[in-house]
Amino acid sequence: MCTVCGCGDDEHGHEHHGKNTRQVSVETDLLAQNDAHAQNNRAWFERERVLALNLVSSPGSGKTSLLTATIERLRDRLPLAVIEGDQQTSRDAVRIRQAGVAAVQINTGKGCHLDAHRVGHACEDLEPPKGGILFIENVGNLVCPAAFDLGEAFRVVVLSVTEGDDKPFKYPDMFQTSRVMIVNKLDLLPHVDFDLDACIEQARRLNPEMEVFQLSARTGQGMEAWVQWLEDRCSGPGDVSEGQELEALRQRVAELESRLQQAGLMKS
Q1: Longest dimension (CA), the chain
Q2: DSSP secondary-structure letter at 241?
């Protein structure tokens, strides 16, 4: 069967081979352009001492509820800003503003992810505060956003216990490229069939350096550890410490090595 059109005839595969080649070329160019914009974003974030986090998940994991709960605990201690990504509506941005933090909404229409170019323009409108945290809530999707670097310091994948505990193995690219996993809606764990230990074990098999937080944004259970992690990595209004600079460099080297391995240009 033809893998392109599913017509069941592989005798004209040479015609589709050309189409496949052109498609791969376009996708490669698109990702290269995105990576260039991401590098510009990253340089700006580092220069302005903005800790940028890219929050990714499937729909319904509770990203926005997690954000509002985090904002409630940090808004009087650190400067915060949020970029909201959705296909339509500005409802989540409204929720963030009601929580007391500036937010910009990006609507992607039929697009299934945010890209670095749009995030850069959103930052021009938002002007994330120096020494603070910029939360980027990506479109709900565990596939497409994995391929698009936004220039963030950390990619944070949010998974709720109401989803399958095999999500890491089903969507390996997302979990391999995320440094942090948050297991949300922990208050519902007694009522669902979700193997928490198995889920965490899968994630760490894909990414041994994965940091995991188990919490409930609704009840507040486990939120303290997550908030403390954020504070420890945020420079605040003062200067960036040598330790923080080294940590940022270490994370960047690890990210680049991972991409080289995925591209087959570096031995594991």
Answers
A1: 66
A2: P
| Residue whose entry in the numeric block shows the structure tokens 């709720």 | 160
Q: Which amino acid belongs to residue 105?
A: Q
Helix/strand/coil (H, E, C) string of 42-57?
Answer: HHHHHHCCCEEEEEEE
In the chain, which residue ranges form alpha helices assigned H by DSSP?
13-47, 63-74, 91-98, 116-126, 167-170, 172-176, 196-206, 223-233, 242-262
DSSP state of 208: T
Let me know if 63 is exposed, middle or buried by CB neighbors in 10 A (0-12, 13-18, 19+): buried
Tens digit of each residue's pLDDT (9 = 90 or more) over 109-163: 999 999 999 999 999 999 999 999 999 999 999 999 999 999 999 999 999 999 9
With beta carbons less than 8 A apart as the criterion, state whether 196 and 161 touch. yes
| pTM, rounded to two decimals | 0.79
- The total of other beta-carbon atoms located within 10 Å of residue 117's CB is 17
pLDDT for position 14 = 42
- Mean pLDDT over each residue of the chain, to the nearest integer: 87
Q: Distances in Å between the alpha carbon of 67 and those of 52, 170, 184, 241?
A: 13, 25, 12, 26
Q: Work out the burial of residue 199: count CB atoms within 10 Å of its CB; fewer than 13 is exposed, 13-18 middle, 19 or more buried.
A: buried
Interatomic CA distance for residues 208 and 243, integer angstroms: 22
CB 183 within 8 A of CB 214: yes
- Point out which residues pair with 211 in neighbouring strands: 180
Q: How far is CA 2 from the centre of its chain?
A: 34
Q: What is the pLDDT of residue 15?
A: 45
* Number of helical H runs and strand E runs in the chain: 9, 7
Closest CA to 97 of 107, 106, 105: 105
Q: 5: which 2 tokens?
A: 């059109």
- Tokens 């985090």 belong to which residue? 70
Q: Which of 46-60, 118-132, 170-184, 244-258 has the lowest mean pLDDT?
A: 244-258
